[in-house]
Amino acid sequence: MKYSKFIYRLGGATHDVIKHCSPDTKTRYSNLAFSLILSTVLAAIGGYDIALQFTTAIPFCIAVAILWGLAVFSFDYFLINGGAVNGIFKYIRIPVGLANVFITITALFVLLNQSTIDTNIRLNSANKIIKCDSTYLSGKEVRYAQVAVKKKNIEEYHTQRCMPEAKNGHPGSEYNRKHSLCITTDSLIVQETAILDSTEKYYNTAYQTEKEALHSITSNDFFAKAKLLPGILTANKLILVLAVCLFIFLGYVELQSILMKWSINPDDEYHTNLRTYNANRKGLLTSQMENEVKTEKDKILLNKKITDEEMTKQKFDADMDAADAKALRELEVKGKIEILRKKGYDTTADDLEMVWKLYINSGSKPQGDAPDIFKMSQSMAHQVDEIQKVSTCENLAENVFIWVLTNITYDTGHSKEHYRTAKEAYNEKRGLCGELSVLYMSFLRAVNICCNFCEVTKDNTGKEVAHACIIIKTSDGKAHLSDVAYKAFTIEHIEYRELTDTELKSRYENWNQ
Predict the structure, then answer these.
(1) What predicted TM-score, i.e. pTM, was given to this entire model?
(2) For 160, which DSSP code?
(3) Which of 3, 13, 100, 90 is nearest to 50 (CA)?
């Protein structure tokens, strides 16, 4: 099954479609695959033969064969599986295929005639070496010709003029006079020979270099071998006939392979079935995608429902906790009122009850007549509880400070038309120094930490400012300034004034007129 799928895929056919076609259609597309394999194998053989002419390294030859085969395979595979291929690509495939056959046959016959070609190359190299020797020696003879003529002339002069004088007895003055020319000439010949010998070194070096190059010529040059191939084929008619026959045979096979690739009919049985298959597959994929989208949508809605239920439960729990706390505070207030009444403070009991009811409704510690400024929402109360859960008595105030500093930003674009309350600053998540301080105070008072609003006229650096922060008073009688806008839990401003809640309420009324 896997083998047939692979073959049909090479032939440009989908197995799920071709398996339902007639035997003739299956045979046609399987033949296409075999023609593709044949062209690839032929190209790989040619690439291997050519690489073998340059080197005997088998891994290199195999690599060239694979690359050459892949090049032809990719071209043919594109031709088969490329759909509506431009006509120019089809016609280019003819010279490509014939060139592939020609290169393969050339490399094959070079390999078969390796011995004859190597002999011819060695003979050519030997002839070139002989010619090189002859050229050098004849050139040297020309360069030394004048010196040789002078040597010959002076030897003749010495024989004809000097020797007769010496034979008459011992050499005399006449002999010395005549022989002085021989001495002078010999000296000149020695000087000229030395100059020629010095120059001859360069000629000799060039000669030796050329000779070594000729000796180093090997038979690894494919193009040099291919150049000798026509002469060998001409000299041996049998080899020529074999080469022509092989070219005709492989050329015919290659052309048949190309024509088979061209014979793909877009309206044949396979392509008709393919269009039906693609249409049905598209409908199936569309249906699957719609089902997946619906399933994903249902998951999102279910997750949203679960999230809403969890949020509702959390809010209910928070409201119940707040109700429990409120009920406990009401019981505490009623108990305190009852104690006061028993002790005879009837005139102040109603006032005390009213003040504590204001405290219960605002969620803050009773502080004068400014409950609306510090009034907290259920979300704020829940946030305070969350901070209290992770804090101790020692670091509770600082954790509140850190939460406000981290979650509420300083409002650099304040319109100055309305000064926010604690609830408004919390909801909008921004505020000025005074608004940040009011929110900070509401959180601290919710956990029974005593604090008041402060106006700062000269800050910790000595700068004149119109600023606001708070003062925190601990149970041991100590107090310190805390400034969210200056990002300092403890700070020492130089000049400031503590305001009561009544004064703060009056300021708010003036600011928000």
Answers:
(1) 0.36
(2) I
(3) 100
